[in-house]
Amino acid sequence: MNTSPDFGPLAAFGVIGFILWLVFTAGIIVLSVWIGYTIIWRAVRRGMREFYSERPELR
Predict the structure, then answer these.
(1) Helix (H) or strand (E) segment spanning residue 2
(2) 17-55, pLDDT tens digit by residue?
(3) pTM of the model
(4) How far apart are CA 47 and CA 53, in angstroms?
(5) Torsion of CA 43, 44, 45, 51, to 10 degrees
(6) Torsions phi, psi for 34 (to 5 deg)
(7) Contact present, 45 and 37 (Cβ < 8 Å)
């Protein structure tokens, strides 16, 4: 007689939940790096444009 409980479906939910959490966390990290890169890239481009503009008071 087998009296041990069957945790198969519960374990499957745990594995699926862990994979979804991992994908979601990786997505948040990639999105935050991309947004930070975009902000810095635009700031540098704007600063270069202002520094090298034809206005003599900036030089």
Answers:
(1) none
(2) 999 999 999 999 999 999 999 999 999 999 988 888 876
(3) 0.67
(4) 10
(5) 110
(6) -65, -40
(7) no
